[in-house]
Amino acid sequence: xWFKNLQIYRLPAPWxxxxxxxxxxxxxxxxxxxxxQDPESRGWxxxxxxxxxxxxxxxxxxxxxxxxxxxxxPSVVRQVADERAEEIAAQQGYKPGRKQMKELRExxxxxxxxxxxxxxxxxxxxxxxxxxxxxIDAPSQTRAEDLLEVLRQTLDSLPLALVRTERSPxxxxxxxxxxxxxxxxxxIDQDCELRSVADEKAAVRYVRHxxxxxxxxxxxxxGKLPTRLALTFDDRVSFVLTEKTEIKRLDFLDVVKExxxxxxxxxxxxxxxxxxLMTGELRQLLPALVEVLGGELKAAExxxxxxxxxx
Length: 311
Prior knowledge:
Blueprint: E1 7-10, H1 19-26, E2 40-45, E3 55-57, E4 60-71, H2 74-92, H3 98-112, E5 117-128, E6 133-136, H4 141-154, H5 169-179, E7 186-196, E8 203-206, H6 214-221, E9 224-233, E10 237-242, E11 247-252, H7 254-257, H8 267-292, H9 299-304
Helix pairs in contact: 2-3
């Protein structure tokens, strides 16, 4: 169990809810397959395939949202509707009007929907009730919102907030690149994106390229700002930090994964061990990242800047 991306949110620390209570509330909306006319279905599934919807290891929780979608492209509906419209035109002597075509497409969609293929996927979220973190394995905040929306609808209360820091990631990353090194236990890797403030289309991307050269500083001096920067934390976890404080391309290095010994170990034990290792590293990484970004804004300051940048 290793997350590839991390969209991070704040819960009260500690979050006063038990795993059993959370499991009971998630059970109100267990996953059920799409009905014959449902284009999509969402609900909670067990992360490990048993009956439990909250998988707890060492005080850390894992939950999973199941999503099923019917694959019925609009182009297929239009094609079938157009074919029927031609038949109708031949019978009545003139083409169907706009209203009739709309009704025809709706009829075709209803007929085809039960026969459409379905696709299922899972989204995972990690909850640290003691530290007050909620992390979703999603490549963007928009995708993470798919899970959060269902979570809000399911729980009696979800006191969730965006994490806001004293310094923006853009300002911090610019200082690190200008100085040639990151703060704290972070080191700069070899991937970066610089984007012009004046012209959003003007961008420079470095891939597997040393970032301590004069060319990078020249782009900074010319007004380009970093929107992505590859970093490594404590020689244990590498990732790409974005201007929205998203964590992408999350990779737990060999020094971490070597702690897993899969010899004579069943799948469930190995899963739990991996989850424990991952969450242990994230509980070190996230506070350290917030610290090098100047710490969290106080509640009143965060509220006043709610329209600025999300974490």
